[in-house]
Amino acid sequence: MVLWIVVGGAIDRNKREEIKMKKIFGLILLLAVGLFTGCTKDTEAAKGLAEKKQYTIGITQFGEHASLDNCREGLIGGLEEEGFVEGENLTIIYENAQFDTGTSNQIAQNFVSKKVDMIAAIATPVAQSAFNAAKDTDIPVIFTAITDPRAAMLTEGNVTGTSDKLPVEAQLKLIRAMLPKAKKIGILYTTSEVNSLSTLEEYKSLAEHYNFEIIDMGISAAADIPLAMDRILPQVDAMTNLIDNTVVGSLPVVVSKANEKNIPVFGSEIEQVKLNCVASEGIEYVELGKQTGRMAAQILRGEKTADEIPYEVVEGSSLYINSNVMDNLGLSLPLEYMDRAIDVVEN
After folding, report:
1. What CATH architecture is 53-164+286-313?
2. What is the pLDDT of residues 216-250, one digit of tens each?
3. Cα 254 from chain centre
């Protein structure tokens, strides 16, 4: 009996030790799984997207003007080329902020509440709103038509896209070639648009190399543009546009005011030249959108996460002219530009 009690106690102690070791092993295993899960969170989110058969993308656009519309067209086209077709395996929710930052924030928050698979943002203000709304979720944000993603603080996190950085030096060369006697170039810009501030600084830093002085004037809203034009036109020999959403959205007012003073307005892309700017060294916004769509497809397929894809900048520029406006202003294009010039009137 005594022997049985001693042996029985030994067995109980062994069992307790066994149980204790199992608990310790289980805790270690749990910690290991937790660490692995944390390290692979982005990868699993990407795989989850790749395994889906239906996708929903929220497209937010800061406002309606031809450049941004072309970006949206190209974005959808780029996705379609990669197998993501609206009405088949892709649902697109499109919202327009009407150039209002408050509305931009509401749209972004609504997309997050709907748990879309991706937010595509066209122009800087809506991209910033989308990034801020989605940063604590696993929803990737892809942007386009942003001049300076770094200045907009859109280079870190679950975000990537394409930049429409202007070929400023090429534009200055063009203006000098067409206006050999000009001294001062006027630029309107929206004070709240970081893309405009960045490009304006580049214009100022390069203008002196071409014997130009930049006369700039900031506005807060489209309603400020008529008065701003009345103030700036007497001071300048020509105007040039940035990719400023508020100013471009009111381009007919800018051009009309300038025409009254016979002052040429240079655009920053083809659509502005179609709207009676005299010429531009600009980029192709449909192609910019397609490039963005191809990047978005990589994320949806789970090949990469947004933070693994550096933002891309379009290289080079295309020269567009409006021969009707040139004739009205008595301007001509130097011979060295003729071979690559595309006349929007003839095309």
Report:
1. 3-Layer(aba) Sandwich (3.40)
2. 999 999 999 999 999 999 999 999 999 898 999 99
3. 24
